[in-house]
Predict the 3D structure of the following.
Amino acid sequence: MTAELWVLALLFSDPPPKTAPPPKPQAAAAATSPDDETTKMLAKVRRIYVDTLTGGDEALQFRDMVMSSLEQTKTFVVTENPDKADAVLKGAADDQVFTDYHDSEESIGVHAQESHANGWRDRYDGGNNANSHGIGMTDSDAVHSEERKHEAFAALRLVDRDGDVIWSSTQESLGGKYAGASADVAARIAKQLAADYRRAKAVAAGGKPPQAP
């Protein structure tokens, strides 16, 4: 075949079939964030043991209040046996009674002064005359007050069997309308833990988490 015929054959021949490009490698699955991981672990908690809290005698009483508040949520099983618990609630609590002092002072002062003087002298005699008037008034009022106050504080964390912290909360209170300071803090912690647990259960089930109260 001559060169001219070979070139014509190339021009009019069918182009070679295109090969499909190699498939792109699939993107690696996104790493699980710490928040997602703790949410899944919290959703598995059902039975809780409340450990002895640091903080003295007040902390011992606060532990009982937390246990009672958790039971009232109707969400968890509170156990006295740490070996049966899915997670342990640990931390510190404090309850203080103190006096708040207030001092204030108010004063009012009024002062007025008027004076007049004149003199005279002639060839044989002389003299002077002076008048002075003054008024002053000062009134002060000091107020001292003392107010007895009661304040409670707690910082708690929920730890699973592997020692991982899966939930935490810090609460403080000067007392509620119907509860003392410690009881109010214990109720807040139990309410928050129950609400976070219900949201974690909803997320783990693939649903929409409930709105926070």
Q: What stands out?
A: The mean pLDDT is 77.
